Amino acid sequence: MTPPVRIHLAAHFPGADDSTVWAGSRSRSHIDFSSFEHLARTAERGLFDFFFLSEGLRLREHKGRIHDLDVVGRPEPVTVLNALAAVTDRLGLAAAVDVTFNEPYELARRLASLDHLSGGRAAWNVVTTSDARTGENFRRGGRHDRADAAARAEEFLRTARALWDSWTPSGEARPLVHHGQHFTVEGEFTVPRSPQGHPVVIQEADSAREREFAAASADVVLTRHGTPEAGRAFYADVKGRLAHHGRDPGDLRIMPGVTCVLGDTDAEAREKAAEIRGQQVSPRHAIVALEQIWGRDLSSYDADGPLPGIDPDPDPDPALVQGRVRGADRLAVASAWRALSQAKGLSIRQTVIETTGRQSFIGTPRTVAAALEESVATGAADGFVLLPQPAPGGLDDFVDRVVPLLQERGVFRSRYTGTTLRSHLGLAEPVWKG
Amino acid sequence: MPATRPPHLAVALDGPAHCDASHYVTLARLAEQGVLDFVTLGDSFARPGLDALAVLSRVAPVTERIGLVPTVTTTHTEPFHVSTAVATLDWVSRGRAGWAASVSGTEAEARLFGRRPAAPPDALWREAGEVAEVVARLCDSWEDGAEIRDTSTGRFIDRDKLHHVDFRGSTFSVRGPSTVPRPPQGRPVTVLDGTAEHSRAAAARHADVVLVRAKTPQQAAALRADVRRRAREHGRDPDTCKVLVSLVVDLGGRESAPEPGLLGGPPPAAGPHFSGGPVELAELIARWHEQGAVDGFHLAPIAPHRDLERIVNGTVALLQHRGLFRTFYPGGTLREHLGLARPANRYVRTGAAS
Lengths: 434, 354
Known about the structure:
The complex is a heterodimer of chains A (434) and B (354). An eight-stranded parallel β-barrel of chain A has the order 1-2-5-6-9-10-11-14, surrounded by four helices. Chain A is globular and about 70 Å long. In chain A, β10, α7 and β11 form a beta-alpha-beta unit. Chain A has 15 helices and 14 strands. Chain B is built from ten helices and 13 strands. In chain B, the strands form three sheets. An eight-stranded parallel barrel of chain B has the order 1-2-3-4-9-10-11-13, surrounded by seven helices. A two-stranded antiparallel ribbon of chain B has the order 5-6. In chain B, α1 runs parallel beside α9. Chain B starts with 7 loop residues before the first strand and ends in a 16-residue tail after the last helix. At the A-B interface, β4, α2, α3, β8 and α9 of A face α2, α3, α4, β6 and β8 of B.
């Protein structure tokens, strides 16, 4: 008898961002299919709910040049997931796909195709892009207003769901007519209703509007990991909104993105965590991070020296602060960094290490398993999206050492009981709304 | 110059659309047993069926050598997304990807997107040619060896080896560089139809493989000569442009009946139709090829499973017996099967340039 599943687990393939450690003998290619296959097979060996890939639509730049300190480049996620469907049997396959530079008909078709080809394991993280530079790669071009982007995302998802519902459960195609503010779609969908009815929909939910949107339409909410108090408050807020939309708390899973560092002793794990942070934040990284807050060229500063005496530029060159905290937030961050640096006597690099992207769970497998369980038991999460470090080997430790302890505690499945991602997540198939 | 190399053989997996991957996996493996150059899978927003590039991505890890060429339409899609998907198919198949560019010409397709009215074929194919151009540029936008992982300087890439493409076409522009590193083949194989005038211009300029429909070897030879002449005018070596005759084949004889299908799919593409046995098909292939009329054939079976089995066990076996077709894959990539070199990168500065 399998114990009731309480914790849901997903693995995120570490992508082109500054938390990805690429140096060292355990890190492998970030583009070869074998790396994706290894990580997905490991996640399936660990009985994970799903495997998650993000997408890249424009390479990061700093001071008008391609950012070269972190992993750059990645494959197109939906295509990789279709290939992974061939080498996995049960694992859910999730991709972040932007709605700003896509059209509902084509994307709904690609996602329904993935759901068919994987036998009901597809998931879609609905994301928007407001960066004008990204638009330079697409027909729509240009900058898009954030509020408008949110409205477009809502209508996009409604339209996609209407397309997925346009085939009756008995297999008859019915033409769809959608006339909205952002999209006009008329005609027949070329893909029959897929095994899950609708692929699992994953959303992020920061602002009140996003939380309301997620409460209305998401199956899974991705969030950032913070303090236990913040986690519980977020969880209660989002789950509390479900009833307004006729949904039960169990209809939505909340999964913070987390990193784990394991060691044979808690002290050893802390040492490893510090080492990883040091690799993530090289002296050049530290200066780049500082420039993005200060909005100034600080390349003459020594990363092992003190923070700059000059204040942040209130009206900086956008090429310097792009994609990072903006405006008033920057000034607040700068003064917090200064205060910390002075109080603890930290260098630029030490300050950046201390204030950015710390690991969520650090300790022995037993310590980490207990902390994960506690987080779920106290209403801060339904599960976690793990970002293994380094990829792809970093997930093996978790699967080999933490998963068995979670199973022993009776809080994680000991086998897959269903074949679809919805079944792993304990979510019902969406009601057909013809 | 007449074709002299052994013929290239490709087969279409079209027919009634299926939603389960196993149907396509079985067919592609069968084609691989026959050592064929590549399989194609058609696609259109106007008829039932899954996304073709998705299907062949699903097929990639469970096949070893066969080339995988989905149709990708360029009218209502984003050129940048087309390029990243095609490049990724090349990564997941370890260098076996191609793509057959096609257009969406109907009002019905235009209404599914609601962005632009249906356009005449010459405008659509001009745009398809521009998309082929931007896909090639985006593939080149990362030089080989751009990923350096230099721990001494902390640099993951050498950013001097990444390039903006700054492409401006008649209906779209793309800044670049690609978000996907240069794929294993440098550029996946581009396939275009060269039968109609609208698409032949784009084909001669951009395609590695040009498909033509012809009823006689003379007709095929004339089309091939025209494609090669135009390719030369674009400054290309005409031998880098392989001309394959598309032929609908029905090897069922009197028992002929299309396979039962889930969705009652489309009729096979219009065009010259071969009806007969596998031996007769081998004789036709040998005859046309001996005359130097074509570089190979793209066969579209009426009943994919039945006919493909007969092509592999009958037609191919006979061609192999006569020494006219390979018995194993000497190379690993689709370009190697086709005898096409990995293309040089347009953005690499040669020693003399500054």
